[in-house]
Specification:
The strands form six sheets. The chain has a five-stranded antiparallel β-sheet with strand order 8-7-9-15-10. Strands 1-2-6-3 form a four-stranded antiparallel β-sheet, with helices on one face. Strands 4-5 form a two-stranded antiparallel sheet. By secondary structure, it is an alpha+beta fold.
């Protein structure tokens, strides 16, 4: 059983976001610049708002690492909010109340349910933590996990496949190049990307927002991560849960996903063949690399659908929890489209789940022990039937 776990804390306009990660073995070399590159990728993307011009996210490691290597104790990561200097009064920890309360709650956000559940009279007490700003801490954790997975020969990448109804043409995409580009939208179909940008421009002019779909791909995951033994050990369930736990995600597909309900089994299941060394191979990967709750040695492929952001510059009709009247919803600084940013968060969450699965299977307090166990296992299962 893996002892891996993590916890984040902090508010959107608070002093900082913090994450504590426990269970990473000792002896893992950390490239902090790689983690910070993911934080920068999360802030980029066509259609992002003014907050991204203020913040330049970087992670500070404040515990668990010495001379660039993990020591086996919890790793603490901190991302300072540069915008805090403009919010010291409104977000004061112990100072007097300051500023107007947020009472015109937004449809599609946690505002109304949160103030009722937690008995608050100011939606800022809810929206500050419900904000997707919290995902900066998760991307930092995911960056740490990607460093761990890289040492294990595993890579996690992503790309955007649809925005505002504009979809990529899979035939135009070289899947081997996903993760190597510098597209503004993290899209690997240039023609589709230009149409997506046009759609975003139209939405921005209308004061509207757009959602979309992205795919996360895991390369190099060994066969047998996860388990069929108990429902909560199934890796596909854990991946779906992790993706759905990202703000604004409303649907998840693994492999062929919902197509599985439309086509006959003969067109869905991945047939198996034997090479000359009696090693099993497949010509398709509609299962998305997962069968029976376990990785099957193919690429793991997960798609997630992000709804349009609920903060609109042309606000929707709502209610005021103070005056109890119908009003236009409040406006917070926001993005028109953040699907590309969500794809980076998706990478982080998938990396976190795969890290837990690797640690659960191979264990070890030190990287050298874990890698030895992993290599011995790979040699056994990769030898053929």
């Amino acid at each position: 059983m893996s002892n891996f776990r993590f916890l984040t804390s902090g508010e959107s306009h608070g002093q900082c976001l913090t994450a504590i990660v426990e269970g990473i073995p000792a002896g893992l070399k950390i490239d902090i610049e790689a983690i910070n590159r993911d934080l920068a990728r999360r802030q980029q993307g066509y259609g992002r708002g003014g907050r991204m011009k203020i913040e330049t996210d970087k992670a500070d490691v404040v515990s668990g690492v010495r001379f660039g290597e993990t020591m086996g104790d919890p790793v603490t990561l901190r991302v300072v909010n540069r915008d805090w200097q403009n919010w010291t009064d409104r977000m004061s920890v112990f100072g007097p109340e300051f500023g107007d309360k947020v009472t015109a709650v937004r449809p599609g956000h946690a505002d109304l349910t949160g103030v009722l559940k937690y008995n608050r009279n100011d939606a800022r007490d809810i929206l500050e933590r419900a904000s997707a700003r919290e995902t900066a801490a998760r991307v930092a954790v995911g960056g740490l996990c990607k460093e761990f997975l890289k040492a294990c020969g595993i890579e996690v990448v992503s790309h955007v496949t649809k925005i505002g109804g504009i979809a990529v043409d899979e035939a135009n995409i070289d899947r081997s190049k996903i993760g190597s580009g510098d597209s503004e939208l993290n899209c690997y179909d240039p023609e589709a990307e230009e149409k997506m940008k046009e759609k975003i421009q139209e939405a921005m002019k209308a004061g509207d927002t757009l959602g979309g779909v992205f795919e996360v791909i895991v390369r190099g995951a060994p066969l047998g991560l996860g388990s069929h033994i108990q429902w909560d050990k199934r890796l596909d369930g854990k991946l779906a849960w992790a993706m759905m736990a990202i703000q604004a995600i409303k649907g998840v597909e693994i492999g062929a996903g919902f197509q599985c309900g439309e086509l006959p089994g003969s067109q869905i299941h991945d047939e198996m063949f034997l090479d000359k060394n009696n090693k099993v191979y497949r010509k398709t990967n509609r299962a998305g690399g997962l069968e029976g709750g376990m990785t099957n040695g193919e690429e793991v492929c997960i798609k997630a659908c992000m709804k349009p952001i609920p903060t609109l510059m042309q606000p929707l009709n709502s209610v005021d929890i103070g005056s109890k009247t119908e009003v236009s919803a409040c406006k917070e600084r926001s993005d028109c489209c953040a699907v590309s940013a969500a794809s980076v968060v998706g990478e982080a969450m998938v990396a976190i789940v795969i890290t837990e699965a690797v640690l659960d299977k191979f264990g070890g307090d030190a990287m050298v022990d874990l890698l030895n166990s992993m290599n011995n296992y790979k040699n056994r299962v990769q030898g053929g039937l």
